[in-house]
Amino acid sequence: MALAASLSTRSGEAAGSDGARLRMRRTAGALHRAVSLLLAFALAGLPWCAQAWGPVGHRAVGAIADALLDPQAKAAVAELLRSDRDREGRPSGRKSLASIADWADQIRGGPQDRPRWHFDNRPLCGGDRDMQSWSWCPQGACATAEIGRMLAILRDRSRPPAERETALKWIVHLAADIHQPLHEVDYAAGGNRIRVRLRGRHFRSARHGKHDRLSLHAFWDSRVVALVLHPEGTWIPRASLQRLIRSARAEDPQRVEEPPSAWGPESFALARTVALDLPGISCDAPPPRRTVTLSRAYVLRSEQVAEAQLALAGARLAYQLNGALAR
């Protein structure tokens, strides 16, 4: 509610971005705080780099799209992946969208890695001018711009097969990334700098003990997906996957057919109204330094949003690929 209140009081004003506030706060002791932050992430076992939905969520989106591909598109995918190689250059054996869905995270640190492509970082506390200027997407290196470029490459049959295959793998990954709300907002590095705690028996874990602490971004990447899908490792139970596929088939065709440029603003709205709807989060103050306890109501709402976003991402991915790969 604090965030909603601060945003409403700034209606019509050019609010300063969270990045500017952080730079002001860093004028003293910046190195010490950076080291402390990195150490805290290391001790908590938290990922510093964002990986939307984690491997389970990405594979779920790919599997939904696999189920919704038409025969022509399915055959085209199989042909493009026929010569697919893993990171070491060996035949990968990957033949489906689900199997390549987390490829862009697997290549982290390698020559094909493009860290800035995984998110958009729209300014939470900026005005309409900031949003429309696309200053949050420098040199076109962001998820929304790149998925459009990759779709154009995939459609172009004059391109080398290897180039189209790489484009396919990026499209499958970025479709999921864009539907993770915290990949669309700049606040506190997409929630990576906000520590949260899950209370109660339902959230106990052998790794962290009774009171599980992680970043807000990590909660949305992986923990909420685990609560929704109940995976065993990276294996998704058939019942969970079929539920998502049914939801994807039932999506409003008008929403499914919206272009990728419309996906990010939807997720950004969910970041403002759901993911960042927490005590202490406001455009009138820096991100909370203390650990935020997630209420049961917040977790339940997050589960509902995550499940809906996974299903919608899969439906939209299939629609785009059916169009791009039609003969």
- What can be said about the biggest beta sheet? 3 strands, mixed
CATH fold descriptor: P1 Nuclease
CATH superfamily: P1 Nuclease
Helical residues, percent:
40-55%
* Backbone CA Rg: 20 Å
Termini separation (Å)?
A: 50 Å
Q: Report the structural category.
A: mainly alpha
Please give the CATH architecture. Answer: Orthogonal Bundle
**Anisotropy-based shape:** globular
Low-confidence region ranges: 11-50, 201-211
Give the overall average pLDDT: 83
Task: Output the helix-strand order.
Answer: HHHHHHHHHHEEHHHHEH
Number of helices: 15
* Text of the CATH class: Mainly Alpha
- The oligomeric state of the chains shown is single chain
Q: Largest sheet, order of strands side by side?
A: 2-1-3
Roughly what fraction of the amino acids lie in strands?
under 5%
Number of strands: 3
Domain module tally: 1
